[in-house]
Amino acid sequence: MSNIEIDYDTILKFRNGDEPAFTAIYNHFYNNIFSFCKYLLPTIEDARDMTAQIFILLWEKKEALDSYKHLRAFLFLNARNKCYNFLRNQKNRTAIDKEISDFSNAEQMSILFSEIESELITSIREEVEKLPEYYRKILQLSYFQGYNNQEIADMLQISEKTVRNAKSIALKTVRMVFLNRNMKIGFPLASVFFFN
Q: Considering its fold, how many domains does the chain have in total?
């Protein structure tokens, strides 16, 4: 996604059903939303399908969106919700359906993820991939696949406290990499990855 925001005239035209304006918005946000879905979903094909669904929904709800901030929030929040619904349905089909997270955490994540930029997601993902397999697996199950601590403990046959401790160690390791690079991580993203 470009750092330059979509201008208000384009948004106004989009609200009135102008297809070139929609195309401009689609091109502006597509890579960012696709990266976000790809980050959460199991396959690239799933991410492509989900991204297409989100932009269809954007077109259907165009009259309610009156600013760049609202457009971005709408796209990220719906991407987050639809991806987690997809994952929950996958669990249902495999007979291991459980809550992805409790209600308050889900609502918090909805708000926080609306601020995530794809470049920063990629940077964090790269650092997580460098962790030892044990810690990487726990972070992937927690933040990328939506399992809570007790679910992870059950799957790995360890205690819930061990999961919490492992997450803490792994997150501190990733955080130190960014601090050593003198990278400034915005509060929303830091809240998700570094203070849970």
A: 2
pLDDT of residue 99: 45
User: Which 8-state DSSP code applies to residue 181?
Assistant: T
Write out pLDDT tens, residues 108-144: 555 455 445 455 666 667 777 788 888 888 877 887 6
The string over 45-78, giving b where at least 16 C-beta atoms fall within 10 Å of a residue's C-beta and e elsewhere, is ebbeebbeebbeebeeebeebeebeebbbbbbbb
Residues 14 and 68 in one domain: yes
pLDDT in tens, 43-54: 889 999 999 999
Same domain membership, residue 110 and residue 36: no
Q: What is the CATH number of the domain that holds 177?
A: 1.10.10.10
Type and span of the H or E element at 53: helix 44-60
